[in-house]
Q: What sequence folds into this?
């Protein structure tokens, strides 16, 4: 089973990476873009999806500062 | 007494920590794959980029065999000091509350800062005075201390903030200007500044020496009277 795990900074937590990107955009001629937040996408293949949430909680995301979403491919 | 300094692939301050500890006691390195700490009284989790800091700073190091031994050591009341990356590792391992986020602004900071002793009653600071200012360098990319509001209030209420950046010295946007914290039981401390780089006036300052002296004194005191912290 293939899965995509999307990890992003929790709402309300300052994301300096997003801010830095946002500040760079006007110089490149992109106006009117705001609210940029940068997360991480993890793609993986798992024999079973039973423990994916545990995997996210224990390693892929730090639940104190990040939210995660698991998206299963193949209609799973 | 003996300090044990963990050495992960990617650690870079392990040898400075070793030299700093040797100013006050015996000290040796502990390889990350070791499953036992042996005769170690105080564990130092040093700075650097353990396992490349992939995923998040400290996220992978917490699963090292030696970290399981460190968790058992802490559980048994043993003293643990995490410096910079070591602080990140201890937070990821759940031995300390909170997390270290990328600096605000997003920039690697490397400079001398002043921190104020907010709690001089801990095993790590008993050789200092409340309100004393220590000059210690910082060098990090992810040092912005964060904890949810209720955890922060709890931390402050129990005197868990041991070191706070002096006014105007917060280099990373840390909540409540927090530079270093101690666990509820008082035996695990993490801090972003590097006391091991501040033990000799020749290299800038000796503000960090007080922490190693305090630890040596704490262990000696425990040996004399095992029931007191």
A:
């Amino acid at each position: 089973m293939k899965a995509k795990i999307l990890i992003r900074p929790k709402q309300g937590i300052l994301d300096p990476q997003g801010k830095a990107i946002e500040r760079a955009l006007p110089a490149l001629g992109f106006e009117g873009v705001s609210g940029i937040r940068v997360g991480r996408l993890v793609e993986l293949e798992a024999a079973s999806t039973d423990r994916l949430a545990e995997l996210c909680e224990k390693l892929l995301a730090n639940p104190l500062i990040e939210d995660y979403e698991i998206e299963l491919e193949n209609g799973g | 007494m003996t300090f044990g300094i963990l050495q992960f692939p990617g650690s870079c301050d392990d040898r400075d920590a070793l030299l700093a500890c040797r100013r006050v006691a015996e000290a040796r390195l502990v390889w990350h794959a070791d499953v036992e700490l042996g005769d170690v009284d105080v564990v130092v989790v040093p700075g650097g980029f353990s396992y490349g800091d992939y995923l998040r700073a400290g996220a992978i190091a917490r699963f090292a065999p030696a970290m399981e031994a460190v968790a058992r050591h802490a559980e048994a009341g043993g003293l643990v000091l995490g410096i910079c990356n070591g602080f990140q590792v201890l937070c990821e391992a759940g031995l300390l509350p909170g997390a270290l986020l990328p600096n605000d602004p997003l920039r690697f900071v490397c400079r001398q800062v002043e921190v104020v002793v907010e709690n001089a009653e801990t095993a790590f600071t008993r050789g200092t005075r409340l309100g004393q200012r220590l000059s210690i360098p910082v060098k990090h990319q992810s040092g912005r201390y964060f904890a949810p509001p209720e955890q922060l209030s709890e931390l402050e209420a129990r005197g868990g903030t041991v070191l706070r950046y002096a006014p105007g010295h917060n280099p990373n946007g840390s909540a409540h200007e927090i530079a270093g914290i101690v666990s509820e039981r008082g035996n695990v401390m993490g801090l972003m500044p590097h006391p091991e780089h501040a033990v000799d006036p020749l290299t800038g300052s000796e503000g960090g020496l007080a922490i190693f002296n305090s630890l040596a004194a704490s262990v000696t005191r425990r040996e004399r009277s095992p029931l007191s912290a």
Notes: Chain B has one domain: 2-224.
